[in-house]
Known about the structure:
Number of domains: 5
Domain Helicase C-terminal: 215-364
Number of helices: 25
Shape: elongated
GO biological process, one term: DNA recombination
Distance between the termini: 67 Å
Number of strands: 21
GO cellular component, one term: bacterial nucleoid
Radius of gyration: 30 Å
CATH architecture of the largest domain: 3-Layer(aba) Sandwich
CATH topology of the largest domain: Rossmann fold
Family: Belongs to the helicase family. RecQ subfamily.
Protein name: ATP-dependent DNA helicase RecQ
CATH class of the largest domain: Alpha Beta
Helix content: 40-55%
Strand order of the largest sheet: 3-4-2-5-6-1-7
Amino acid sequence: MEHNSQSILKQYWGYDTFRPLQEDIVHAILQGRDTLALMPTGGGKSICFQVPALMSEGICIVISPLIALMKDQVENLRKRGIEAVAIFSGMSKREVDITLDNCVYGKIKFLYLAPERLYSDLVRERIRYMKVNLFAIDEAHCISQWGYDFRPPYLQLAQLRELHRNVPFLALTATATPQVVDDIQEKLAFTTPNVFRMSFGRSNLAYMALQEDDKMNRMLRMIHKLGGSGVVYVRNRRETQEVAQYLVNHGIPADFYHAGLDNISRSQKQDRWMQQQVRVIVATNAFGMGIDKGDVRFVLHLDIPDSLEAYYQEAGRAGRDGKKAYPVLMYQQQDRERLWDNFESSFPSIKFIQQVYHHLCNFLQIAYGAGKGISFDFDIGAFTKRYQLEIMPTISALKFLERDGWLAVSEAVYIPSRLKFEVDYQEVYKLQVQSAKYDPLIKLILRNYGGAFDFFIPINEYEFAKKLKLPYLEIVNMLQGLQKLEILSYLPKTDAPQVELLQPRVDYKNLFIDSQFIQERKKIKQQQLEAIDNYLDTEHCRSVALQGYFGEKDVPPCGTCDLCLMRIHAEGMTEKIETEIRTLLTDKKMDVKSLIDAIETGNDETRLRVVRSLVDSEFVQVEEGMYSWNVSKY
C-alpha cells in the first residue's frame, strides 16, 4: 500500500515523500475509516483525498463551498491528466444532467459539488448510481454552527450516507476549535471519532498586531524593510484598487484582486504575482485559497478580520517555505468599533427577514406557489437599492432564510460561456455545406475544442472574433442563430451570484424563521469578536493566544512576535539599568531624583520601576531618603 500511494504521489505530483500526517490520513481512508484532518493553510489537504481516490476504483465526490477553488482544483487535476468535473450554481439543468451522466457512465475520477446542489433530487439520485470511493468534505468547519463560517447547506451532507453507507468521509479544515472538532464529527455521523491534527503553531511566523494611526505610511515602511513578495488584505473591492495604486505610486510593483474580476483577469493577476512580476497583491479575502507560493515574506491586514479563524487562515499564507515571515495586523480604535457595529446589524428582526423574502420574490417575479428549484442571477446591489434596504442586514437575512431551507445563495464567480452540439457530426457537416455563414465558426470550434458533442465546453467569444476577424456581437448572434436552428446549445457567460428557491413561494406572514437559532448564532458571533478583542489586547504572546484559542495548552512563548520582542527588549533594558544603578550606588548615596537623572538607559518611568524593584528585593536600601547599594545582599 505504501509503495502504491507513493508511486501515485510521484506520478501525478512529482513528490518523493508525503508531508507530515498526509500518509497517515491516506492510509486511514484506504482502511475505510471516517477521518477528520486539521491541517493549517499550506499543509497539503487536497493530496489527502486525491491520492486514495486515485488508488481506488470509482469516483471521489468533493464538497466545497468555494466555486472559484473548485474550478481551480478541477483545472489543476485535468492538467495532470486526471478526469475531474464540477457542478455549481449558474449551470443549466441540461449541463448538470450531462455532467452527472459522465460521472455515472464515464471515467470521471473527481466530482466537485457545491453543497447547495445536494438539495436537488436529480443530483442525489444520480449519486446513488455512481461507484463512489470517498466523500471529501472541504472547509468542514462550515457544517458547525459554532464555526466561524457556518453554511446551512452543509447540514445536508450526512444524507450522503443513505446513498452509500460503506463509503468513508474525509472532513478537512485548516481552522477548528475543540468544540467545532466535536461538532463536525457529530454532524457527519462519524462511526467512531478519528482526528488527525497538526499543531497550529508556526515557528517561522512573527505575528504582530499594531495600533496604527497612519496605516498607509507604516505599510510602506514595512514592505521596504521586509523585502520579498506579500499580500495586503483589505475589507472591500474599492480598497483593493486604491491601496494597489498607492503602492504603485510609491514605486512598489502591485496589483489588486477580488471576486468580482472575470476568470481571465483573476488568472493573469495571480500568475503575475506567482511569477514575481508583481511584488504585492492587494486583495479581499477572496484571494489565497489553494495558492501555494512559498516565498511570501509578509501578509499585512489593513482591517480587522471577522474572526481569529479567518485571520489565522489568511496570515498562514506567509512563510510556506519555512523561512521567517511576518503576518502583521494594523488597526485603529474605530476599526474595532466598526466590527461591533456590523455585529449588531448582522442579526435583523424576524419581521425584517420576512420582508426581505417578500421583496426578493417580487424582485424575481415569482408567483405564489411557484419558483421551487429555479435559479436566478441575483444583483444584491440593485435589489437593496430598489427596496431601500441596508446591505449588511439584508445579507444576513438571506443567510437565515438559507438556513431555514427557503433558498440557497451562491457566491459571485465568473462562469465562462459554454456550448454543446445537440446533433451528430453528420448533421453539423450538412449545415457547413449548406451555410457559408456558419461554416468558418463551426470549423473553428471543431479544430480547437474537443468533446463538444458529448458535454458543454467553455468557449471565448472574443477569441472567435479575433481569429475570424469579425465583431464580437456578430459571433454572439451566430451562436444564438445556431441555437435557434437546434444545432447547439449556447450558454452565455455570467459573473452574477445565484439565488435558488428551494420551496414554492409562500405568503411572507406564514414564513417560519427559527428565532432561537438566530439568538444562538448571535451568541457565537459575540464570542468570536470577543476572541479578536482578546487577541489584540493580550500582553503576553500572539502565538500563545492563537494556539490557545484552537485548544492547544502549555505552549511556550514564540520569542518572535511583537509582544515577545518588547518583553525581551524590556528585560535586556532592565539588566542594563540594574548594572548602572549598582555602579552609581556602590561607593556613594544618592537621592532618588539625582539617581534617576544619572541613569542613561531607558526613560524616567522605566528607571523608576527598576529602582522600586531593587528596593523591594533589598538590593538597594533607603535611609533618610538616600539610596545606596546593599553590599551584604549582593
